[in-house]
Amino acid sequence: AVVSTQSTGRKVKWESRNGGKECSDSDESRTETCNEGCCPVDCVWEQWSSWSPCPEELNPEGQFVTSSRNEFQHQECGGTPCEGEPFRKKECNILNVKDEEINRLREEVKELEDEVERLESEMEPKDEEIKKQRENIKELEDMIEKLENEMEPKELS
């Protein structure tokens, strides 16, 4: 018959202090024989999946969202089986879900409107400055045109 072994290990979490006993190297790992031919392995669940979307259709039995999980490690050789169910569900209400989404989007719109208002208030003084500079440019262009006209030869009559 085949005899199997299983090992576990651990690290020092706190060094000894205040006269406590030092950890020994022999405490760092442990190996033991187990069932002939196989060692017990406990079942381990994976993480729950995300909740499914709430159904769009109203249903007289109610509306539910679901989530699931699979066994990450199957129980073997007398290990502990997974406890609990692989599926779960909870009630939802599509009208509440839509209402929450509408409120979230309204909040986003409000934040964007506030940002636009802030940016516009920063731009107003600049718009006035730009308008003044354009007026200055026009005045200078008019002066140039006047000087150019004065430089053209006049016809004598």
Descriptive account of the structure:
By secondary structure, this protein is of the alpha+beta class. Helix content is 37%, strand content 20%. It has 1 helix and 6 strands, in the order ββββββα. It has one helix spanning 94-151; strands at residues 3-9, 29-36, 44-45, 63-68, 71-73, 87-92. The strands form 3 sheets. The protein has a two-stranded antiparallel sheet with strand order 1-2. The protein is elongated. The mean pLDDT is 85.
The main sheet comes to: 2 strands, antiparallel
Q: What global shape is seen?
A: elongated
Uncertain regions: pLDDT < 50 for 5+ in a row?
A: none
Count of helices? Answer: 1
Please state the average pLDDT score.
85
Structural class: alpha+beta
**Order of helices and strands, N to C?**
EEEEEEH
Strand content: 15-25%
* Rounded Rg: 40 Å
Distance between the amino and carboxyl termini: 134 Å
The largest beta-sheet arranges its strands as 1-2
Give the fraction of residues assigned to helices: 25-40%
- Quaternary state reads single chain
Question: How many β strands by DSSP?
Answer: 6
